[in-house]
Amino acid sequence: xxxxxxxxxxxxxxxxxxxxxxxxxxxxxxxxxxxxxxxxxxxxxxxxxxxxxxxxxxxxxxxxxxxxxxxxxxxxxxxxxxxxxxxxxxxxxxxxxxxxxxxxxxxxxxxxxxxxxxxxxxxxxxxxxxxxxxxxxxxxxxxxxxxxxxxxxxxxxxxxxxxx
Length: 164
Description:
It is a single chain. By secondary structure, this protein is of the alpha+beta class. It contains 2 helices and 10 strands; from the N terminus they run αββββββββββα. The protein has helices at about 1-25, 150-164; strands spanning about 30-35, 40-45, 50-55, 75-80, 85-90, 95-100, 105-110, 115-120, 125-130, 145-150. The strands form 2 sheets. It has a 5-stranded mixed β-sheet with strand order 3-2-1-5-8, with no helix packed on it. A 5-stranded mixed β-sheet has the order 4-10-9-6-7. A hairpin with a 2-residue loop joins strand 1 and strand 2 (about 40-45).
């Protein structure tokens, strides 16, 4: 039993080091704080003054022809592509799960706790997700939409949003 235990230790220590290094976030360009509420998300761009908004699902009777039912929101998250993004996730009421499958991001938002992860978008476009936690009767009606745009358009968006 001693030899297998030693082999497991030789496997475990490098793995723990790699897990620690994967969780370390180096020099993010943008920090986005996400707060889960029942039944919407709130976003705060921590690096800029006064950029915060709520994001609600668009009701079916208000959808345009090019919107997705149960997936489109009234306020999208605008982020620059080819940039390291840090996201801080918490919740105001119950446990939520901020999930964007196309980016490989899933992180839980827990009341009283601040979780963080990072991601990198290498192409422009729309990325859709939803709360993937059973956080109440209407938990599936908490969609997430990220719009990835070039950095110069992102700077213009920040300047326009700050002035309004």
